[in-house]
Amino acid sequence: MPTQNRVKIVIAGCGRITEQHHLPAALRSNLVDVIALVDSNSARVHAVARKYALHVPSTACLDDALEGADGVLVATPNRTHAPLAKIAIARKVPVLIEKPLACSYAEAQELCRLAEQNGTFIAVGFHTRYYPNVMLMKESIERGVLGRIRSFHYEFGTRGGWAPVSGFNLDKRQSGGGVLIDSGSHFIDRMLYWFGSPAGD
User: 139-151 burial by CB neighbour count: b if 16+ within 10 A, else e?
Assistant: First the structure.
């Protein structure tokens, strides 16, 4: 049951990332109340709600779920990030968006402009920069433990990879690109965190 002084959030997207990570984290938090679930697949949203004994409204339309919301988490296929974020921004509701922010630079710029115009904000879920080993690397670089870094070689991968329920990652039209826009965006974020933005010519 929602209580005062807790952040009331709507979760849009009831796929694997929500089921295994976002929803369990939200339900464990003393700071968050999940007030609605949104997904175009009604069977999926009901299955996830039932798994966690979560009795909140569910809908296929984000706009129908925003009343009383303090924030929205968008955890849907990549191509839907920008359209869904625009709906929340238009209602002046802050949005946390699963990476990537959008499928194009133009879309990302538009979201930033709209958020500023509507006096709200957007954020992207680049959580890997908070991993202890990533933060240790940042500290080591800043303290000069590694000396002057002239180049680096970085490899990352997993056996089998991540398998979204919708399978959107197997379709470049839905994902917005290949591995770079998906897991590669975390890599780019870590590089920016460690080394800063590239210097211009």
Answer: eebeeeeeeeeee
pTM above 0.90, yes or no: no
Cα 71 from Cα 93, distance rounded (Å)? 6
- Give the phi and the psi of residue 86 in degrees, each rounded to 5: -60, -40
Task: Measure the CA–CA gap between 171 and 103, rounded to whole angstroms.
Answer: 13
Q: Compute the 3-state secondary structure of the chain and give helix, strand, coil in percent, each to the nearest 5.
A: 45, 10, 45
The string of pLDDT tens digits covering residues 129-161 is 999 999 999 999 999 998 988 888 887 776 666
Those residues whose C-beta lies under 8 Å from the C-beta of residue 32, and which sit 6 or more positions away, are 6, 7, 9, 26
Write the CA distances from 76 to 35, 49, 85, integer angstroms.
18, 16, 11
Q: Which residues of 66-105 are buried (b: 16+ CB within 10 A; e: fewer)?
A: beebebbbbbbbbbbbbebbbbbbeeebbbbbbbbbbbee
First to last CA, the chain: 55
Provide the 10 A C-beta neighbour count for residue 187: 15
- In whole angstroms, what is the distance from residue 161 CA to residue 73 CA? 23
Torsion-angle region of 62 (φ positive above 0: left; ψ -120 to 50: alpha; else: beta): alpha
CB atoms within 10 A of CB 108: 19
